[in-house]
């Protein structure tokens, strides 16, 4: 096992040094947040939805079993609180910083950008698209193409074109509820879970060894620090 310098690495003693070393990482995180914000503003691709497709898109429009606000709490706030508690016990700012930066923020933001970019590009309708498109239950179709002529609320219809992949499944263990609530097809949830698992594993391994490695208890940078 590598020699790891012992002692306290507090925010006061090492905070400024680590902040300087990872300044560009934090800038990249801000850029990722801006990109994801723009992806949520732009209009997604409106995939053709015909009358004969509505049989599979007529599930009831209902609320979320796991509300939207709970996802960042489960995926970001709770892990950061746990990391903070460990920091106050171990006094190791390397662990705290790299855990939040790599294991949480990079994972969440990269996953969000990938997921939302695919959502906008694919434009797959949600299982409850019929009721988003025709909230009064009176369907209307083009006489030539048989495509839908939606008269629902624009923002609700926009969200209805963002089924694939599931962002909730990418960021937290709420995948089953997304199918139960008819917000996603099972394929959306499966793809979202794969994206989340892959990105989270990749980001973690940029800052930490494999968990079962002999040196897996500390971030890479600590091995070379004095």
TrEMBL record:
<dbReference type="GO" id="GO:0016020">
    <property type="term" value="C:membrane"/>
</dbReference>
<keyword id="KW-1133">Transmembrane helix</keyword>
<dbReference type="InterPro" id="IPR043216">
    <property type="entry name" value="PAP-like"/>
</dbReference>
<feature type="transmembrane region" description="Helical">
    <location>
        <begin position="100"/>
        <end position="118"/>
    </location>
</feature>
<keyword id="KW-0812">Transmembrane</keyword>
<keyword id="KW-0472">Membrane</keyword>
<dbReference type="GO" id="GO:0046839">
    <property type="term" value="P:phospholipid dephosphorylation"/>
</dbReference>
<dbReference type="GO" id="GO:0008195">
    <property type="term" value="F:phosphatidate phosphatase activity"/>
</dbReference>
<dbReference type="Pfam" id="PF01569">
    <property type="entry name" value="PAP2"/>
</dbReference>
<dbReference type="InterPro" id="IPR000326">
    <property type="entry name" value="PAP2/HPO"/>
</dbReference>
<dbReference type="GO" id="GO:0006644">
    <property type="term" value="P:phospholipid metabolic process"/>
</dbReference>
<dbReference type="InterPro" id="IPR036938">
    <property type="entry name" value="PAP2/HPO_sf"/>
</dbReference>
<feature type="domain" description="Phosphatidic acid phosphatase type 2/haloperoxidase">
    <location>
        <begin position="100"/>
        <end position="204"/>
    </location>
</feature>
<feature type="transmembrane region" description="Helical">
    <location>
        <begin position="189"/>
        <end position="208"/>
    </location>
</feature>
<comment type="similarity">
    <text>Belongs to the PA-phosphatase related phosphoesterase family.</text>
</comment>
<protein>
    <recommendedName>
        <fullName>Phosphatidic acid phosphatase type 2/haloperoxidase domain-containing protein</fullName>
    </recommendedName>
</protein>
<feature type="transmembrane region" description="Helical">
    <location>
        <begin position="66"/>
        <end position="88"/>
    </location>
</feature>
<feature type="transmembrane region" description="Helical">
    <location>
        <begin position="26"/>
        <end position="46"/>
    </location>
</feature>
